[in-house]
Write a structure and sequence with these properties.
The structure holds two protein chains of two kinds. Chain A is built from twelve helices and no strands. Chain A is mostly helical. The longest helix of chain A has 36 residues. Chain A is globular, with a radius of gyration of 23 Å. Chain B is globular and about 75 Å long. In chain B, 46% of the residues are buried. By secondary structure, chain B is mainly α. Classes of the chains: A mainly alpha, B mainly alpha. The interface between A and B is large, with 93 and 98 residues.
Chain lengths: 270, 303
């Protein structure tokens, strides 16, 4: 295969990748009747701001955005903290049952938690968390992938001598964690944080199940509501889509390079 | 006193540090999964306070329900239609990027872009593209004289549309995982193969794939697990309302998770019955993942 053909193929793939997102922007900037045209529009129109106004009018989208920010931030913070703690213990501390417990973590990565949603729903009802953000936040405070990811990273990146030196100076384990482990873990924590934020922001099934009232919904559930009408208002639905995706795309544009590095690093070692 | 403190610290700290994960996971991850099995043996609904033990009655009822078999067929059909092209494209894509290229970062960012987009967003966008009357894809088909397809209405066509959404969202991500593994393959292997006159296609089949076998197994199993749980794509493709829950007016694309959702959260909250569905799905996942493992393990022998 010649180099030119490779670049041509890759450009084609890139266009295929970007086109649906571009097209959603086109539709978001048209009024709904423009979409009944043949051929369909392929250039942006002038209705973007009008459509954005309608999105906020149809569903409490500002509230949904705020809810998503709260849920995603809370879970990102907790997953990063708890994964780093557990990762530190698994990578560098000696204790009985370490191997067996680590294997348990790896094993649970393969278990689809989605299958437990019915008892989880019952549990949430029992705790009277139904239709509150707690119902979405608490079950996602930890995940096995995070622990595994951090263990792998700290095993390689954290010099054992540094910890020993700290011990000789009389530092207790929690001081080692704050002053030695956390600074070393920062790059991996950034990647794990981004992945977690993305996943939680994009989660759909569980929020749909437990969040009933419009003012408690996350952005993805609010989006699905925009499609609920009897007459399909695509420009409305796609404006919402764009608004819900844009923040992630901006973050991705800024930090995507590190994210890819992290995914590839995790994959090599996994 | 100091040494006692030191000992307590080094003994207990590790357990203290791993306990948040294990406690939370036990309560919100493991317990629900196990409890599903218990619930599935009862006539358990949200609306009544009594939950009589019924043994395997839910499972018998489930296996006798033609709608269950319909959902199973749909799930497997969508799984095959999405996973197979996805993995082939991902391998080829990774193979293409795994050489000296300009603008390396650009190609990789592009690959991950669909994965950053939420499922809901993907379905909303693709539903417009696959629209019957004003969709871009039908307009293209029409202008090539191929006629229009009512994508949602047919069994095969709706499965293809849903598989396209899944493939679009996951191909690049899988390609990145493959790429990571490919970078560990010694470059000398390719150099000598090129000297021997092997084409890129032969190199992909004879060198790359056998060398990254563990990663291939990993990706196949993960995609299978994801594919068996497909929910948002069919639910939103049908638009919301009753059709979303049954997967189109004729259940033409109702998947197993939708079936579980229908019984668990929609029709009188039949938790026992829905839990039985969950456990059948779990069994299926273990079975198919295991079969995949055995099949992909044989890759090396084709060398």
């Amino acid at each position: 295969m010649t180099r030119r053909l490779v670049y041509l193929t890759l450009t084609g793939v890139l266009l295929l990748t970007a086109f649906p997102l571009y097209f959603s922007f086109v539709v978001a900037s048209q009024d709904n009747s423009a979409l009944a045209q043949v051929p369909p529009p392929v250039l942006p129109g002038e209705n973007l701001f009008e459509n954005i106004r309608r999105v906020f009018e149809t569903v409490p989208f500002d509230q949904a955005l705020l809810n998503s920010v709260i849920v995603s931030s809370a879970n990102t913070a907790s997953v990063v903290l708890f994964s780093t703690l557990a990762g530190f213990a698994f990578a560098k501390l000696k204790f009985k049952g370490r191997t067996a417990l680590l294997l348990t973590v790896v094993g649970t990565m393969m278990v689809p938690t989605q299958l437990g949603i019915i008892p989880l729903f019952m549990l949430i009802n029992e705790l009277e968390w139904h239709d509150t953000l707690l119902a979405v936040i608490v079950p996602a405070l930890v995940n096995a992938f995070g622990v595994f990811f951090m263990t792998q990273y700290l095993f390689e990146a954290l010099p054992t001598e540094l910890l020993e030196a700290g011990r000789i100076d009389g530092a207790a384990t929690h001081r080692l964690f704050w002053h030695v482990v956390l600074p070393v873990a920062r790059p991996a924590a950034a990647v794990l944080g981004m992945l977690t934020f993305l996943n939680v922001w994009n989660d759909y099934l569980w929020p749909l199940v437990v969040l009933a009232s419009p003012e408690n919904q996350t952005v993805q559930v609010a989006l699905s509501q925009l499609r609920a009408g009897y007459v399909q208002d695509y420009s409305l639905a796609l404006t919402g889509t764009m608004l819900a995706t844009l923040p992630l795309l901006i973050v991705f544009g800024l930090l995507g390079k590190q994210l890819i590095g992290g995914i590839m690093q995790g994959a090599v070692k996994g | 006193m100091r040494t006692w403190l030191y000992k307590a610290d080094t003994r207990l700290s590790p357990y203290l540090y791993i306990s948040p994960f294990f406690l939370l996971f036990a309560v919100f991850g493991l317990f629900p999964l196990g409890y599903t099995a218990w619930v599935s043996l009862h006539d358990w609904t949200l609306l009544s306070d009594e939950h009589p033990f019924t043994g395997l009655a839910n499972y018998r009822e489930l296996l006798a329900d033609p709608y269950f078999w319909n959902a199973l067929r749909n799930t497997i059909s969508i799984l095959l239609l999405s996973t197979v092209p996805q993995l082939i494209f991902a391998l080829i894509l990774a193979h293409l990027v795994n050489r000296r290229l300009r603008a390396k970062t650009l190609w990789r960012l592009g690959m991950l872009l669909p994965n950053v987009t939420s499922v809901v967003a993907v379905v909303v966008i693709f539903s417009q593209l696959f629209g019957r009357d004003f969709g871009l894809i039908n307009w293209l088909l029409d202008s090539f004289g191929l006629g229009r397809i009512d994508w949602q209405a047919g069994v095969a066509s709706s499965h293809v549309a849903i598989a396209a959404m899944i493939t679009w969202r996951w191909t690049g991500y899988n390609a990145l995982i493959f790429l990571a593994a490919m970078q560990a393959v010694p470059k000398e292997l390719y150099e000598s193969a090129t000297l021997d006159g092997a084409t890129p296609g032969q190199q992909l089949r004879k060198i790359t794939i056998p060398s990254i076998r563990p990663t291939v197994i990993f990706v196949v199993i993960v995609s299978t697990i994801y594919g068996l749980q497909v929910f948002a794509e069919p639910q939103l493709f049908a638009g919301s309302g009753p059709n979303g829950i049954i997967g189109g007016p004729d259940r033409q694309f109702q998947t197993l998770t939708l079936y579980m959702y229908e019984h668990g959260f929609n029709r009188g909250f039949e938790f026992g019955y829905a839990s039985a569905t969950a456990w059948v799905m779990f069994g299926l996942i273990v079975l198919i993942a295991g079969a995949n493992y055995l099949i992909t393990r044989r890759i090396r022998s084709s060398r």
